[in-house]
């Protein structure tokens, strides 16, 4: 029996399945493997922006805490691309400016990323969102490329993401 993406997503249209998010992680896995990456990115971005999920900086911090060193470096590279060197030293008590020698690195390494705490990432995400609200879209795209990581946001947020994916694919 073939997998029916449309039927699965139908369950999440209009937020219908957010009250019982128990299957959302497994469903998200199946959708991420079968749906266009752009649709997954838009769904994740929708969850990151939703007023039914924790604020964007908190979710990014949570995901950072669940990430491997390469994913952490990738997340930081996305976030730091929106901040100039002056802003970097003003975030996280100046610790990041010291870590990176006072300037925004061209690429954060996994080793450098391992020296950054989830709380510092929350502060970076907060500042990045203030400076450039489009960072939410960039992070949604990054997470769509790392769908196993997205499962760390929890079932309710995944159900919201699936609802957004369903809406986007209907269009």
Question: Could you give a short account of the major beta sheet?
Answer: none
In round numbers, the mean pLDDT is: 85
Beta content comes to under 5%
Alpha-carbon distance between the termini? 26 Å
Structural class: mainly alpha
User: What oligomerization state is this entry in?
Assistant: single chain
Task: Give the tally of β-strands.
Answer: 0
- The number of helical elements comes to 12
Rg over alpha carbons: 17 Å
Weakly predicted, low-confidence segments: none
**Count of all domains:** 1
Give an overview in words.
- The chain is mainly alpha-helical.
- The protein has one domain.
- Helix content is 65%, strand content 0%.
- The chain contains twelve helices and no strands.
- α2 packs parallel to α12, α3 packs across α10 and α3 packs across α12.
- The longest helix has 16 residues.
List the helices and strands and how they pair.
Layout: H1 5-10, H2 24-34, H3 37-49, H4 56-65, H5 69-80, H6 85-90, H7 95-99, H8 110-113, H9 118-131, H10 135-144, H11 147-150, H12 155-170
Helix pairs in contact: 2-12, 3-10, 3-12, 4-9, 5-10
Describe the structure concisely for a colleague.
This protein is an all-alpha fold and 171 residues long. Helix content is 65%, strand content 0%.
Name the features.
171 residues; mainly alpha; 12 helices; elongated
